[in-house]
Amino acid sequence: MFPPKSFPPRRTRIRENVNEAIRAKEVRAVFPDGVVEIMPTQAAIRKAQDLGLDLILVSPTADPPVAKAMDYGQWQYEQKKKSHEAKKKQHVIQVKELKFRPNTDDHDYDFKKNHAIRFLKEGNRVKAVVQFRGREIAHVDLGQKLLQRFAEDLAAYGAVEGQPRLEGRAFHVIISPLKKDSSAKKEKPAAPPANPVIPPA
User: Fold this and answer.
1) How are strands ordered across the β-sheet holding 36-40?
2) Which of 3, 86, 120, 161 has the highest CB neighbour count under 10 A?
């Protein structure tokens, strides 16, 4: 039989900025009854504990630091709720890439165009790439016409960003979503911008 493994004792999690973990000598203590008082930290901790509460440092950079007497569990719940709400409102803009060939058929083109419309409506940018293989590179004009058509079809949802670029065997353009005009009336939506013009390569 193998000898039993000895595990280190489980460390108790230290509550940061709560009660004895507060290092400031004095704090601006805020109590549930609305009383705000600058007092020694230890005295504020005792007063909070007499009320059955914890002393939590809520503004450590203030002078003196601000500490509030409240229930630690309730405070944790409120912090998690605020963090969750902030993440819900946060939107990370991504670049969605769609690849074409110079001779892409209409069915495949429409399929990818609909994807691009959905991406732009979600607030993401779209990178349309026309890839050339072998002797197709001699027909860059076909890729340019395809991207021109693509930009025109998406003019109501996005605008061409910068200039189209030919890098190696790929010709690409980036389309950004249109900025929403908060001042525009809902019953009178803004007219779509003029068709973008892609200059020749």
Assistant:
1) 36-40, 26-30, 66-70, 54-59
2) 120
